[in-house]
């Protein structure tokens, strides 16, 4: 839990938001190391202050949970992210788009389903939704640009249902929500829950918003949840996956696949996860999570894997909140209680790895090799110029590039009579600049340095 002074500063920021943005009720929470470090609630739900177990609708946060189901199918080998939609869901007029493009909103599909505004009306079955799609459902060339599509996630939900031979909501409960302990996340509301309201723009009066089962469009925004459950979801997005997915798969989901705002790149999208880059008085962060809005409700959950923090809010208002609320809460936490670095302690290193540490040279450029946990390696330029990457050990004695220019490439140690060198996808690293004893591609001038 946070200190009393920190809690007061956090509650004041939440209270200001509730009062000035005229929100009927709102809850917020901060997560540290997988646990709720602070919770606050303002306003009233049924005459009572909302609590950690009060349900709100979470809108498009639902999409990130559907994306987890798709990634589970991918990891099981039941589909490939490069599969065209037609392979998994035949009969649509947009069958050439890929699963990866649907997950990242780069498929070019229309944002909304045909017919009436789906968020305020009862839904239709999947067959009827698919049958209503036409050639006009493709708004952009696949892969050309980011274009948010609720329809795309409706199609992903139907893929889950067909692959698992069960409704997507049941699959989500059994494979994700139950294992994570998120038992208060449901497709329809249960007591106690907030009622969704629109707040009149010029008077302090409310209008109840409709709530329906959205049928085939439900994977785009159907779910209800609580602060407690969303705190667990924030930890999941940050890497505490509870066995539901491999942490490496969630890290893949957090990688930018598209950018929303062009050159400045403050908002982007991965595979079912929204991304945000933010710089404030407490420093810079790269957040992953999702926003959510449905008539009468707003919600957002963010995680910062770099320091193990998460933040969320749930509110029963159609519009009017300031986007800065959650980053302000994170800044308050960091300024009042900055995290302590983990204690350093020595760790055993195998002799063969220890022998690889120290300086290496790619031509005349100096690099340094360091040992990472789990027999990993890092290769980093000594100066600011050059390509840095981390490498994970493989069972065959080679290393796989994890990031940077060499992501996905193979690093291997080559031992010859002339010595030892590193081969990184044809690039040769030697212990001396252009070591003549090593088979440097193109050879080394016999007269040497002069």
Automatic annotation (TrEMBL):
Keywords: Hydrolase. SUPFAM superfamilies: beta-lactamase/transpeptidase-like. Residues 349-431 form the DUF7586 domain. One of its GO terms (molecular function) is hydrolase activity. Residues 18-322 form the Beta-lactamase-related domain. It comes from the Bacteria. The keyword Membrane does not apply. Pfam families: Beta-lactamase (PF00144), DUF7586 (PF24491). This is Serine hydrolase.
